[in-house]
Every structure is written in C-alpha cells, then in structure tokens.
Design brief:
- The complex is a heterotrimer.
- Chain A is of the alpha+beta class.
- In chain A, 35% of the residues lie in helices and 14% in strands.
- Chain A has ten helices and seven strands.
- In chain A, the strands form two sheets. A five-stranded mixed sheet of chain A has the order 2-1-5-3-4. A two-stranded antiparallel sheet of chain A has the order 6-7.
- Chain A starts with 5 loop residues before the first strand and ends in an 8-residue tail after the last helix.
- The radius of gyration of chain C is 19 Å and the shape is elongated.
- The chains are: A alpha+beta, B mainly alpha, C mainly alpha.
- Chains in contact: A-B, A-C, B-C.
- The A-B interface holds A 162-163, 192, 195-197, 199, 201, 227, 230-231, 233-235, 243 and B 2-12, 15, 79-80, 83.
Chain lengths: 243, 116, 119
C-alpha cells in the first residue's frame, strides 16, 4: 500500500446501502472503468457493474463519477480526481438493481412512450423514398441520430428527478429525429405523445443533458424543436393534421 | 382541449408575451434610468405621463403582456414545487387578476393624474 | 445504511443550470413584486399630492434597497429571457454560454449605473 493509492468510494447495496472505500493503485492512463474492474477482480468479487466494449462505443459503462454521469471507460482518472479520492455511484434517476447496475427498463419504456420508433407505409415492392442528405429535415434528424441510449442525459436531468412521468431527454431527442423523418407515418401520434407535462413542455432548458452527452448530442435543441412543432400543430395545425 | 394541447398553447402564449415584454422591458429599463435622475417625485412622474396617450398605450400593452406571462410562469413553478397541492391554478389566476386590475388602474391613474 | 445518492450540486454546477436558476428566481420575485408595484402606481389616482404622500413611504432604506434589487432582477430576467427565446426559436448555437456571461455583466453594470443615477 503506497501513498500513491487512490481512495475510491463505491456504492454497495441497492436503494439502501452505503459507500465502501477501496484502495486502488494509481496508474498513468487509468480510466474509471479500470478502477472498477480492479476492485471487482482483485479486492471484492461481489461488486456488480456493467461494461461491454470498453472503448466508448456502447454506453454500457455509464455511472455517476464524483456526482456527474459519465462513461467510465472514457473518463481518465487524472481528469476528474479530487485530491486522491474518487466517488463512484450508479446512474441517478434509475432504480438500482445492485451496486453500480441500474434498472434501465423505465428509460427504454419512455422511449416507446414518446413514439420513439419508426413506422413507414412502404413495402419492398415500392420504390425507395428519396431523402436528400442536405435537406433541412435530414440535417435536423442527423444532429440527434447518433444516440445509443446510454442513459447519461436521463441521469443528469433534474426534471426527470422531480417528475416521475417525464419522458426525458433521450426519448424526446429520438422523437424529434423521427418527426424529421419524411418516411414516418405516425407524426400525429408522436406529437400527441410528446406534448404536455410528461413531454417537451416540462423541459426548462437547464442544459444538463447537453452538457453531459458523451456523443455531443444536444437534446435541449431537439426538445426546443418539438416545442415549436407541437405549439404550431396545436394552434395552426401541421401537414399531418391538427393536434 | 386535451392536456397536451393546453400545455402547448400556454407555452406558446408565454413565449409570445415574452417577446412583447422583451421590447417593453428594454424600453422600460431605459425610461427608469431617465426617470431616476435627481430623485423621483410624483410631480415629475405625472408630468411625463399625464395626458400622454403614447405612454398610456405602451404601458397598457406592457400590463397585458405581464398578465399573460407571469401567471403561466407562476403556475409552472407551483405545479413543480407542490405537485399535489392544487395551488397552481388558483394562485396563478389570482396573480393574473391582480396584475390586470391593478395594472390597468395604474395606467389610468398616471394618465389622468387623479383628474378623472 | 443510507439511501442511494441522488442528483446533487455537482451535477448542476454548470453555467446553463446557473442561468436557469437565476431566471426562475428572478421571475418568481418579480411576479410577487408586480402587484405591489401597480398598487403603488395606482395611488396616482389620488392626484399629484396624494401620490406624493404614498411615495414618501419609499424613502425608507428597505424600499430603496428593494427598488435596486428589483431593477437588477429585471435586468437578469430580461437577459435570460432573450437567451431562452434564442434557444427555443433561433437556430441552434449551443447553450449560449457567451450570452450568459454577457447577461451577468449587463445586470451588474445596470445595477451599478442605477446606483449612480439614483443620487
């Protein structure tokens, strides 16, 4: 045990539990995922956590590090260390299954709730829809399309915390990309789903989602787009009908 | 009107009134500077506003924009802070009434200078 | 044994959240103050003398401080509101952090100028 060890507090338990401190040797180029992995392999095999690709592509390793939701495989310890201590907890706003693993069902259910899925009306016998990549709608969709559903934005949002039925930034962002998909035929249902207190109007543009997103997506922008779209549809009607 | 449509319309109304207020407040902040030089007396205030139709119209628009904008904001805050209390609607309506009635009274007051 | 951690200040320590908090706080106080402001102004119905009488109330220092605070709050709420209108209606250019800094400066400058002009 050297003075160079990291003091790592890790949440153990589920909804009830405690922070347990582990001493982890410091290495150059160490990520938080390396730290968690070290603890589970060398110090305490009962620690539960999730990861998959470990190279910043899948979003499975998202956790709360020093109070902020991050991808642990992409977070260098040297960047976020406070003195020589680190605090690792499960993602906020989601029920804890065990230790650092959360139950993400409500996150994905809300995606469905926002009609965040595609439905077209063409068959294999129809011609392709021609979508210009530089059309305004496609560019708006492209700005938010890279979301991989990691939950970091959802875990960072205060409105999600205070309103249990708020659909959340990821679901609304996906809904927005689909309202800009010219092939989709559920726009009226989608606008109905995202209007109201559970939807885009509950957002206060606090921007925590946009700050936290590891893919530099701006759900704040997408939700602003939905607000305008829904307001217009409610007051004047849209090309798919009036709300 | 479904809840979603209501929220959409309230959002829209609050943002439109915000745009009006943006203009009114910018002008008002300027007027405040001009007015407070050398102290503020009733005589001075009324000297500017009495009989001034432009002032009256400007400030009445201001009052109406506030009447739309503030209660919606208040309702949102109350609904989020005390969700099950049922306070949001009545307090927001009370605020709306106070702003409209007291505001219009003020505009009439400074326009007429008490000489109705 | 304690409850699992929840969102705390560390998750909210960024400029955009600060802008939201200032906007909400200033809006709430302004909304509460507005009826009082109108009440005072409606005393003008009493004519110049009656109006002057009620204005004398404001000579107490607590009113002077209140006036200054409200003017600063108005400047803050106004600037933050323009930012929100830009985010919601304008082309997306991020969370407008430059604007937040400018707004804070504007509010401070306005507050100081108010003190300077108000003898």
């Amino acid at each position: 045990m050297s003075n160079n060890d990291l003091k790592v507090r890790v949440w153990r338990g589920s909804q009830e539990g405690e922070f347990v401190e582990y001493l982890v040797p410091r290495n150059p180029n160490q990520t938080v995922l390396d730290v968690v992995t070290y603890i589970q392999r060398k110090l305490d095999p009962t620690l539960s956590y999730r990861f998959a690709c470990r190279v910043g592509m899948c979003g499975s390793c998202a956790m709360t590090v020093n109070g902020v939701a991050r991808w642990t495989c992409r977070t260098h310890v040297s960047k976020i260390l406070q003195g020589n201590s680190l605090e690792i907890a499960p993602l906020n706003n989601l029920p804890v299954i065990k230790d650092l693993a959360t139950d993400m069902r409500e996150f994905f259910n809300k995606w469905k709730g926002a009609v965040g899925f595609f439905k077209g009306d063409k068959t294999r016998y129809d011609d392709f829809t021609k979508v210009q990549p530089n059309s305004e709608e496609r560019q708006l969709a492209d700005a938010g399309i890279e979301c991989i559903g990691c939950g970091v934005c959802y875990a960072s949002c205060e409105v999600v915390e205070s309103r249990p039925n708020y659909l959340g930034p990821a679901a609304l962002n996906r809904a927005w990309t689909l309202t800009n998909d010219v092939r989709d035929v559920q726009q009226l249902e989608r606008m109905t789903a995202v209007a109201g207190d559970a939807g885009c109007h509950a957002c206060h543009s606090q921007g925590s989602c946009t700050e936290a997103c590891p893919k530099a997506i701006a759900p704040t922008a997408s939700i602003a787009g939905l607000k305008k779209l829904v307001a217009r549809a409610a007051v004047r009607g849209s090309k798919w009908g009036k709300l | 009107m479904s809840e979603g449509v209501l929220q959409a319309k309230l959002w829209y109304a609050q943002r439109i009134s915000a745009m009006v207020l943006g203009l009114c407040v910018a002008i008002h902040l300027g007027i405040i500077f001009y007015a407070i030089r050398g102290g503020l007396t009733a005589q001075e205030i009324l000297g500017r506003t009495q009989g001034n139709m432009l002032f009256a119209i400007f400030y009445e628009i201001f009052v109406i924009a506030c009447f739309v904008h503030a209660p919606i904001g208040m309702a949102n805050i109350l609904q989020e802070t005390f969700p099950k209390s049922g306070l949001a609607k009545p307090i927001a309506w009370l605020l709306a009434l106070l702003i409209l009635i007291l505001g219009t009274t003020s505009v009439i007051g400074v326009f007429t200078g008490g000489a109705i | 044994m304690s409850s699992r951690p929840t969102l705390d200040l560390r998750a909210k320590s960024h400029l955009s959240y600060f802008a939201y908090a200032c906007h909400r706080f200033s809006g709430l106080l302004l909304a509460c103050f507005l009826p009082l402001h109108f009440l005072m102004l409606s005393q003008s119905l009493r004519g110049a003398q009656g109006f002057e009488q009620s204005l004398l109330l404001t000579d107490f220092w607590v009113f002077k401080f209140g006036e200054w605070a409200l003017v600063v709050l108005l400047a803050v709420h106004f600037a933050g509101g323009i930012r929100l209108l830009m985010i919601e209606f304008g082309p997306w250019h991020g969370l407008r952090k430059g604007w937040i800094q400018l707004s804070t400066l504007f509010a401070i400058v306005y507050g100081l100028l108010f003190l300077y002009f108000a003898n």
